[in-house]
Every structure is written in structure tokens, then in C-alpha cells.
């Protein structure tokens, strides 16, 4: 295999000068590996990445340099191509204040002074001749751990930059700012911290008690919770007019949190991420926070042609470095100076996340128009190459082959047009996918990466370094708008690696690897996600992360697993798929058992898929609380038939009692277990034997031990099932009543979702349904016969002899239906009539017209229609 030790390429593949790449990183960050596959190794991208994964994944990232003769043509017409841009405030990627409402802060602060200090705030606090924004100062000091830490660690220069982004910082100014904070905000900081600490203690204490006693929570209150400006809870009498913006329910009002600006409400468990308790002080929803002038994001910019964007990019580079070709050390040093706020305000533009299905791909595609300058053979070759990012998600061995939904960035590549300092902030990919990025042309990209194994350590350092931003936006890392100098991560022993990607190079990022970086100048790149078999456990983690933060997922991970399990998958997939399906099986078994124990005994299967072989064609409902796709199971209530929740959030769907709720499922536990067995590389005979053994095991050791309290005593799941079977056998033997069958089938629902140990119940349910259909058929037939016999109205449709015979043809009879004997009487009369008609037709010369008419009259008067009456009518017509 063409592995190479970590080193840079001295000459860009497209022949561009790469002096910036020839120098090492200014931050002393070790490089990630670079690979030079030969032509044989380059044939299959997924196979090659699988080979290098053991070495490359610990870096979180790597670079791949294709063979020299692999040079795909750029497929877009640069003269006509236009694209939208986003404006990036690079100086605010790290050094920015958290979104805050200065007026509300002032109101809270003044009330604190009046209540705890017995005085009112000064109308204005002046710093360097201008009014000082106390809200911004408070959040800036909070960033560095509070007043005491800011003093000990000498962070007042950094605090100054938050308050006055532009301007020189003198020692005197830092001292004055420190003194102003000490005078005006120190006491408020102590109160604020104490309020939060007491809230956490109260919450933990309450949770401890709740776990011990598990009291029933009464959600019938029609009150909603607000806080006053001192953090005290205030209950406001109100009817059910406050609707949660997430789940559209007005129930559970005691955990409804109202935004103190827009007055909209959210259940604390519906927020993203969910809150454990009502927070102290005033609270503002994300919509209101993001509407603030201090909120931060990438603002949509102008539409540009490549030529116009090039002029802007060239001007920006000349502004910083003149006509001199800057080295990597210079570029990195300047970028991080800007990010850390020591240079001033710097804004750049980035044509990012351009959907190639809309704007076109840089790679040739079969259905695209071929530019005249590109030969047919070259075009066709690179349309088909597996390294063409348009082909990557659908390659053999990709778990995304079953996805028939054009998800931008996942199934459809994104295009990127960058300029100097345009950035892609710290993040890992949706669903923890792999990513592949190809630099079509232009100046290098500088990447930084933290391996997926250190993602937790990375997040901890980010939260500790930017506490104010995370307090304001707990899901900050989902926003892709924040950078942190890699040297800060290194100082906290988080491993960071770098890659310098040149034109013609690929960069691979591994699952859950945090990565970010910036561009050295004008360039064009394209990227897409991919998912080989070893991604599956990471995908499960990603799906759980979405659920934890109440974020909408890109696709249903459970659906993907089930579809792949039922397809012709490669043997390499089996171990990963088996483990994930076992995890789903165990989780479903636990939660379904928990629901049963809590009183949810109604259940029903979901509607079958029209296209079960594909993912994303028919979208599953999502949990109204956590937004998780509900492919395998869900809970619904008759009071809100269009609202669904996942099994974990069943208590939050409504205030009805559990016996009003219903479990809906796509797979029984038995069927899920069969999917598990299908992934164990067994032949059909071995699988059958294993399944039988496991079914016996399930019967004796798993759900059989599940129990709950019934009529003052405990009864097991298996015991209830046996009792139901005994009653059902008696029902089949006693005279049929529709109520008995309906009640039995309703009672059986609590067992049907379970494992193979409930197969006898399923068989009995089939027998009951068959018996019910038969008995209802007999009774319906008798009703029609009686109706015709009573009225003898020829406009009433008769019952056919074939239908009567089908009902009487069961041997043994499905159940004890007394009407069966009555139907036999009708059938005997019709059978005798048929015999007489056939006899008359056989001896037609001896039959008089009167006899023919008498037979015809009997046939007309018969409640059962016989086919022979048609022949009789023809004969009667001919003899007349």
C-alpha cells in the first residue's frame, strides 16, 4: 500500500505555486498522515480508506494525493457560473459576547440592587468617555470564569476586547475596567452564581427523592410557571391557552417555561437541549436571542460570478500581504490574530454549502452538458470514476446505497468557493459520517482536527473556554460558527493535528472527528459524506445525540439499519450491523416492557411500507418532543391521533391515563430478533436451529420474568399470556358472541409486540380472527337469507351457493356458531333444488311445460342463488 509518512507536497497537483504549503504550521501542530496510493490501490476508495483507517483514524483526518495521471476536468463553466455568498465576521468567531438583552439585564440588575443592596443603580457608568455596557462586561468576565479568575489569570486585556473591540489597550484602561466591575458587578456576580448553585442543589435533591419514592405526578394543574426578576418561581392562574411551540400541547403547564420577551411557551423537556428544571432569573427563547443585535451568525451576502469574487479575493490578499507570496506561518499567524480579536474587525465572504444539484458539480456528471473543451473519453472516464464525489455515497460497501433521498451534503455534494481567511468552524459531520473533500483548484486549505476518540475532551475545553456562549446557546457546536485556537486545546492536553490540502488533493475526516480550518486564498472545493460499514456504531451515537439535543436528524438511522439488514449485504458489514441491531433490540425490549408495566396494554402494527427496500422514500413520523424519527415504534393517544412520541417520552404526549395510549410498532421483538440472526453469517439451516434455541431461551429467561401489580398481587407477563390462552380456547368452544371475541383480541394486544415466546398467542389470535370472520360470515349470510325469505323482493341480491358452500366447507369448524346448523338447512334445500333441475335437464323430453314453470318458480323463490337456474330459464324459454 502506498503509505507515506506525514509530509507536505512541494508542488501543487495543478501546477500552482504552493509556497504557503512548504512551511510548517506556526502553531507547532503535528501533521496528519498523507497517503499516495498507486493506481491499483486507487481503484476503490472505500477499500483504500478501510486499509489506512487503523493508522489514520487516530488523527481524525488525513490527506490523499491521487496518482499523477488522475486529473479530472473542472466541469463548470467559470464564465457563466454564479453563486451566493455568506459574510463571515472572522474577528467574532471566538471573541464575541454572548447574545444578551441589555435592557432586560439592566432591569434585573436594578431589582437586585434594590432588593439586596438597598440602593438604585447609577444612571450611567462611563468608561473612556463612553457609556459602559454592563451586560456585555458581565458576560465577558463570565467567559474567563468570573472576577477572581480574571484577576488571577490577568485576563482584563481580553475582557477589554469584548467591551471595546477597536482601540488600543493600556494598562490603565485594564485597571479602570477591573475596578468598575469590582464596584458595580462583583456583588451581582456572587448573587448570580449562588442562585444557580442553589437551583442545581434543589434539582438534584428533588431527583434523589423522586427516584426513591417514584410518586405519581399530577399534570392536571391549569397553572403555568413564570419567574420574577429575582429568580423566584411565580405561578400564574391560567387556563389551557398556553401552547408549547414544539409539541403544540397546552398540557403539563407546571413545566411550561415562558420566554420573558415574546411570551411564547415551551415545556422544559421540549427545549433543544431539554432543561432539567425551571432556570432562575429571566429566560429567553432562541428566537429572541438570535434576533438580538448581539447575536452571531453568517449573514447572507451578494451573488457573485467567479471573476467578480476573484477580484474581491485578490484585493483582500493584497490588503494583508501586498504582492508578496505569504508563507503558511504568516497566514496562520495572521488568521489566529484576527480570530482572537487583536487585529480589529475583519469580514470576508464565502460561497459555502452550495447544493450541486442546483449550482452544478465540479466533477463531470452523466446528465450534465459536456463543455466543448473536454473530450468525450475524458468526460466519460471521470463521470464513472468512484472518486467522483457524486458517485461515492452509492458505491458498493456504502451504507447509504439504500437511501433514495437527495440529501444535500450527504447524498449530493456541496460546492465551496473560498477566499483568504474564509473559514469552516469546529464541527463534526451530521450523523458522525465520514467526509471527503476534494480541492478542484486554487490556493490551499488549512485543516485542524481532533480525533473522534477525544471528542469529549474537545467539548469540555470548548465549554470551559467559552462558558458565556454555551450558557446562551447550549447547542453551540451544532451552529458551526465558533473557532478556538488549537493551541488552547493543546494546552489542555487535547491532541490536535493539521493538514494542508492543495489543489488536486482529497481530505478525509473520520467519524466524530472535530475539524475546522480556513482558506489561504481563492479556491474551489467540493465535499460529500459517506458511510462504510465501520461507520454504523458512530451513526448510532449521532442519532442519540440528535435525540438528546432535540434536533431533527438527516435520516432515520433505525430505518437504515433495518433496510440494510434485509438486503444482500457484504460479510464485512455483518459484525457492525449485528451489534447495532442487538442494541436496538435490547432497547426496544426494555422500553416496551416498561410501557407494559406502566399500563400501556393496547398495541397495533404500523402500516406496511410501499417501498421497504429504500430509505427516505416514505418518511416516518417524528417524536413531538425530541424530533426522533419513529421507524420501529411509537406511542399515540386517541385524544391526539396525529401526535406521536418515542417510547422514552410516552409520559409527555398528553394527560390521559396510560390505558388510553397505544404502542404502535413496525417489528415485533421476534421480528427484530430475526433481523439480528440474519446478520450472523449463518446458513439457513443453522439460522433455523439457532432461532429455535433462542426462542426457548427468550421464553424462559427474558420477558417471562416481566411482572406488574394486578388486583393487589404481582403477575408475570408469561402468566398473563397463559391465562389469556386458556380463556381463548374456552371461547372457541362456547357459542359465538361478538363481544367475547372482541374483548379477547383487544386483550391480546398487550402480548403481540413481544418476542418469539408469544408465538402461541399470535397463533391463537389468527385462530380467533379466522373464527370471528367465519362466524360473522355465517351470521351475515343468514341475515341476507332471512331478509330475502321475508320480503321476496327480486331487487335484493341473493346469496350465491358458492358462498354458502365456502362457509360450510370448513373442517373442523373454526368455532361454535349455532347459526351454522340453520345455514345447513338452507344449503340442503338449495342442493335438492339443484338435483331436481339437473334431473329435469337430463330428461327434458319427458318434462312438461308446467313442470318447467314449477321448477323455475321454486328457483326464483329460493333464498340461495344457484347457477343452474340460468340453464333452467333458457330451457323454459325454448320449450315455450
Automatic annotation (TrEMBL):
Major subcellular location class: nucleus
Alphabetical GO biological process terms: regulation of gene expression
Record-level GO cellular component terms: chromatin; nucleus
An annotated Gene Ontology molecular function: DNA binding
Residues covered by the JmjC domain: 381-547
Region (Disordered): 1-30, 202-231
Low complexity composition bias: residue spans: 17-26
Keywords noted in UniProt: Metal-binding, Nucleus, Zinc, Zinc-finger
Every PHD-type domain range: 241-291
Superkingdom classification of source: Eukaryota
InterPro entries associated with the record: ARID_dom, ARID_dom_sf, JmjC_dom, JmjN, Zinc_finger_PHD-type_CS, Znf_C5HC2, Znf_FYVE_PHD, Znf_PHD
Name the record gives this protein: Uncharacterized protein
Source organism of this protein record: Escallonia rubra
Amino acid at each position: 500500500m502506498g503509505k507515506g509518512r506525514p509530509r507536505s507536497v512541494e508542488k501543487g497537483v495543478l501546477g500552482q505555486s504552493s509556497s504557503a504549503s512548504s512551511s510548517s504550521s506556526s502553531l507547532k501542530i503535528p501533521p496528519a498522515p498523507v497517503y499516495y496510493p498507486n493506481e491499483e490501490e486507487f481503484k476503490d476508495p472505500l477499500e483504500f480508506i478501510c486499509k489506512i483507517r487503523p493508522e489514520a483514524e487516530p488523527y481524525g483526518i488525513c490527506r490523499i494525493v491521487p496518482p499523477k495521471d488522475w486529473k479530472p476536468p473542472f466541469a463548470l463553466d467559470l464564465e457563466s457560473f454564479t453563486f451566493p455568498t455568506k459574510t463571515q465576521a472572522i474577528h467574532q468567531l471566538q471573541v464575541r459576547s454572548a447574545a444578551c438583552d441589555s435592557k432586560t439585564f439592566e432591569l434585573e440588575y436594578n431589582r437586585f440592587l434594590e432588593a439586596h443592596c438597598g440602593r438604585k443603580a447609577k444612571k450611567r457608568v462611563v468608561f473612556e468617555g463612553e457609556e459602559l455596557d454592563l451586560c456585555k462586561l458581565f458576560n465577558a468576565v463570565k467567559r474567563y470564569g468570573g472576577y477572581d479568575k480574571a484577576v488571577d489569570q490577568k485576563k482584563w486585556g481580553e475582557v477589554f476586547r469584548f467591551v471595546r473591540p477597536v482601540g488600543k489597550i493600556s494598562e490603565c484602561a485594564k485597571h479602570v475596567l477591573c475596578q468598575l466591575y469590582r464596584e458595580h458587578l462583583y456583588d451581582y456576580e456572587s448573587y448570580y452564581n449562588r442562585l444557580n448553585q442553589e437551583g442545581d442543589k434543589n434539582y438534584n435533591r428533588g431527583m434523589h427523592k423522586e427516584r426513591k419514592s417514584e410518586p405519581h405526578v399530577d399534570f392536571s394543574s391549569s397553572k403555568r410557571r413564570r419567574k420574577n426578576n429575582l429568580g423566584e418561581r411565580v405561578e400564574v392562574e391560567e387556563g389551557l391557552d398556553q401552547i408549547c411551540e414544539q409539541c403544540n400541547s397546552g398540557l403539563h403547564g407546571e413545566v411550561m417555561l415562558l420566554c420573558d420577551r415574546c411570551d411564547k411557551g415551551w415545556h422544559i423537556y421540549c427545549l433543544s437541549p431539554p432543561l432539567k428544571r425551571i432556570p432562575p432569573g429571566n429566560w429567553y427563547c432562541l428566537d429572541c436571542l438570535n434576533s438580538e443585535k448581539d447575536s452571531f451568525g453568517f449573514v447572507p451576502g451578494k451573488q457573485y460570478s467567479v471573476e467578480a469574487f476573484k477580484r474581491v479575493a485578490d484585493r483582500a490578499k493584497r490588503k494583508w500581504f501586498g504582492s508578496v507570496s505569504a508563507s503558511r506561518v504568516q497566514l496562520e499567524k495572521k488568521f489566529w490574530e484576527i480570530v482572537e480579536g487583536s487585529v480589529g474587525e475583519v469580514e470576508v465572504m464565502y460561497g459555502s454549502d452550495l447544493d450541486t444539484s442546483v449550482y452544478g458539480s465540479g466533477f463531470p456528471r452523466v446528465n450534465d452538458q459536456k463543455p466543448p473543451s473536454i473530450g468525450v473519453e475524458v468526460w466519460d472516464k471521470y463521470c464513472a470514476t468512484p472518486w467522483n464525489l457524486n458517485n461515492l455515497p452509492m458505491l458498493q460497501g456504502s451504507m447509504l446505497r439504500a437511501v433514495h433521498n437527495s440529501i444535500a451534503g450527504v447524498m449530493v455534494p456541496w460546492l465551496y468557493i473560498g477566499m483568504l481567511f474564509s473559514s469552516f468552524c469546529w464541527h463534526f459531520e451530521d450523523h458522525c459520517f465520514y467526509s471527503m473533500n476534494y480541492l478542484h483548484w486554487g490556493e490551499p486549505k488549512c485543516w485542524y482536527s481532533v480525533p473522534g476518540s477525544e471528542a469529549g475532551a474537545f467539548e469540555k475545553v470548548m465549554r470551559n473556554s467559552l462558558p458565556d456562549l454555551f450558557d446562551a446557546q447550549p447547542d453551540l457546536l451544532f451552529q458551526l460558527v465558533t473557532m478556538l485556537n488549537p493551541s488552547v486545546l493543546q494546552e489542555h492536553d487535547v491532541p490536535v493535528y493539521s493538514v494542508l490540502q492543495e489543489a488536486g488533493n482529497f481530505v478525509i475526516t473520520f467519524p466524530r472527528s472535530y475539524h475546522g480550518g480556513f482558506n489561504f486564498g481563492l479556491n474551489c472545493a467540493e465535499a460529500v459524506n459517506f458511510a462504510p460499514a465501520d461507520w454504523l456504531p458512530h451513526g448510532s451515537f449521532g442519532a442519540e445525540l440528535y435525540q438528546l439535543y432535540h434536533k431533527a436528524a438527516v435520516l432515520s438511522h433505525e430505518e437504515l439499519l433495518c433496510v440494510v439488514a434485509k438486503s444482500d449485504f457484504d460479510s464485512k458489514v455483518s459484525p457492525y450491523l449485528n451489534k447495532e441491531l442487538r442494541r436496538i433490540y435490547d432497547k426496544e425490549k426494555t422500553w416496551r416492557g416498561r410501557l407494559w408495566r406502566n399500563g400501556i396494554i393496547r398495541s397495533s402494527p404500523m402500516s406496511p411500507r410501499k417501498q421497504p427496500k429504500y430509505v427516505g422514500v416514505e418518511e416516518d413520523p417524528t417524536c413531538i418532543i425530541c424530533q426522533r424519527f419513529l421507524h420501529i415504534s411509537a406511542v399515540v393517544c386517541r385524544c391526539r391521533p396525529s401526535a406521536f412520541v418515542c417510547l422514552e417520552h410516552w409520559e409527555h404526549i398528553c394527560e390521559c391515563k396510560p390505558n388510553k395510549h397505544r404502542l404502535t410498532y413496525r417489528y415485533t421483538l421476534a421480528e427484530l430478533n430475526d433481523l439480528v440472526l440474519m446478520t450472523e453469517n449463518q446458513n439457513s439451516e443453522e439460522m433455523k436451529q439457532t432461532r429455535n434455541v433462542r426462542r426457548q431461551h427468550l421464553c424462559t429467561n427474558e420477558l417471562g420474568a416481566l411482572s406488574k401489580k394486578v388486583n393487589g398481587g404481582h403477575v408475570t407477563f408469561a402468566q398473563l399470556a397463559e391465562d389469556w390462552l386458556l380463556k381463548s380456547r374456552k371461547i372457541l368452544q362456547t357459542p359465538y358472541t361478538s363481544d367475547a371475541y372482541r374483548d379477547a383480541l383487544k386483550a391480546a394486544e398487550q402480548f403481540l409486540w413481544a418476542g418469539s415466546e408469544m408465538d402461541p398467542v399470535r397463533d391463537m389470535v389468527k385462530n380467533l380472527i379466522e373464527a370471528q370472520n367465519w362466524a360473522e360470515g355465517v351470521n351475515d349470510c343468514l341475515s341476507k337469507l332471512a331478509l330475502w325469505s321475508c320480503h321476496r323482493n327480486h331487487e335484493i341480491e341473493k346469496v350465491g351457493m358458492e358462498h354458502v358452500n365456502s362457509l360450510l366447507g370448513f373442517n373442523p369448524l373454526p368455532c361454535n356458531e349455532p347459526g351454522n346448523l340453520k345455514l345447513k338447512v338452507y344449503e340442503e334445500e338449495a342442493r335438492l333444488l339443484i338435483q331436481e333441475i339437473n334431473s329435469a335437464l337430463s330428461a327434458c323430453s319427458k318434462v312438461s311445460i308446467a313442470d318447467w314453470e314449477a321448477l323455475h318458480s321454486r328457483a326464483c323463490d329460493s333464498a340461495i342463488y344457484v347457477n343452474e337456474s340460468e340453464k333452467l330459464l333458457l330451457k323454459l324459454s325454448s320449450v315455450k
